[in-house]
Amino acid sequence: MKLILVLDNIRSCYNVGAILRTAEGFGVERVILSGYTPRVHDKDLLPHLREKLDKEIHKTALGAEDMLDIYACDDIKTELIRLRDDGWQIVGLENNIADNRLHQLNKRDYKLGEKVVLVLGEEVEGIDNSLYDIFDLFLEIPMKGKKESFNVSVAAGIALYGLTSQ
Q1: Is residue 80 within 8 Å of 131, Cβ to Cβ?
Q2: What b/e sequence results for 81-99 when a residue is b if at least 16 CB atoms lie within 10 Å of its CB, and e otherwise?
């Protein structure tokens, strides 16, 4: 399975770094940073701001940020449509939504293609609702405790393991 990971509106540099390290470990082919997700090696930033963001992301990425194919996208909706048109299956990691495309990650009652784009949304609000019509399916990590969700970097690891172990 080929995997592309989209980080859309992830606020924390530490979450971004941890996700990049995990993505590299699971062999993710490409990472797309969109929305206000902090960019690594962002040439559009002033040098001192770029250095600050790179340092913060590096604290948890530990070099994975230099091992992955990472690029920034200003129009994620258009990019997801282009990827879907190129044969990629668009999968959102989401929870607590009422949608018949939502499946439990561990149930495996869904079919994955050979090329999957996994989209992670903002830490509190999740994936922007305006993107929902693009998705082929949503996956949810079942929770057994009282909390409603995992930290986005932890959820990314769980989801990537679930997807690559099928």
Answers
A1: yes
A2: eebeeeebbbbbbbbeeee
Distance CA 127, CA 56 (A): 24
> What token pair was written down for 71?
């690029």
Q: What is the pLDDT of residue 37?
A: 97
- If you average pLDDT over every residue of the chain, what do you get? 95
With contact defined as beta carbons under 8 Å apart, do 93 and 53 qualify?
no
Residue 42 DSSP class: -
What residues are paired with 117 via a beta bridge? 4, 90
For the chain, domain boundaries: 2-164
- CATH topology for 2-164? Alpha/beta knot (3.40.1280)
CA 4-94-53 angle, 5° bins: 55
Report how far apart the first and last C-alpha atoms of the chain are (Å, whole number): 10
Instruction: Give bridge partners of residue 31 from the DSSP assignment.
Output: 5, 70
Q: 83: which 2 tokens? A: 């990827």
List the structure tokens of 34. Answer: 């969109």
Residue pointed to by tokens 């050979």: 114
Query: 69-79 burial by CB neighbour count: b if 16+ within 10 A, else e?
Result: ebebbeebeeb
pLDDT tens digits for 106-142?
998 999 999 999 999 999 999 999 999 999 999 999 9
